[in-house]
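Our working data are protein records whose layout never changes between entries. Instead of coordinates, the fold is spelled out as a row of discrete tokens. Here is such a record, shown just as it appears in the course material:
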Amino acid sequence: MRIGKQSRIIRGPEASVTPDLKAVARDVIACERCPRLRAYGAEIARVKRKAYLHEEYWGRPIPGFGDPGAWLLIIGLAPGAHGANRTGRLFTGDRSGVWLYGELHRQGLASEPHSVHRDDGLTLSGVYISASARCAPPENKPTLKELDNCREYLVREMSALQSVRVRLALGRIAFDAFLKARRELGLSGLAPRPEFKHGASVALPEGGFLLSSYHPSQQNTSTGKLTAAMWHGIFDKARALAGR
């Protein structure tokens, strides 16, 4: 594994993070801005899926997770109803997490190849994982208003993560969320505006790069829209862009 000794290691979504990121996590968990999403997440947590009837669902908004000294910021779409909404950590407990954390482990950026629960002891180095929306949306489709309501948290995380060199957007919604968050941070616009395309990268005026990938959703991976080779290539490219 290539986990560097100089990076700070984070356990769980809130522990041992910088004050700014800890405040963001606290505000995310307490957020009630989107009644539709909060009602949906709470109802899923009450009813549960048959396979998880013995578990206590998290059922609240999901904070970011990772290393405050990260060189790689990964932005996803939203928590899964029976994934992160159940486990309390982004990309944890569903098929997309198998792809993400398996690859992070292959790259030496995660201590384990599996992510099953927020308290499973998994650690990350050099990576911070965020999302466009922090509550599980019905049919995985947050509204534009709900995404607008949630963007503040991504903006604050981006402001706090001072060492990021590569911003990896998983899917078009995450791609758009990042560009809007840049504007809210007062950063100069990109002209021409980049288009979402798997494997495409663009240099950013503030330094570093924006890299795009298809989301590792079960729909994309089961149909071959996103293959294992394509997925490996994204992270190899991220390392190359960051000079690591």
Summary: The chain is about 40% helix and 10% strand. The chain has one domain: 10-242.
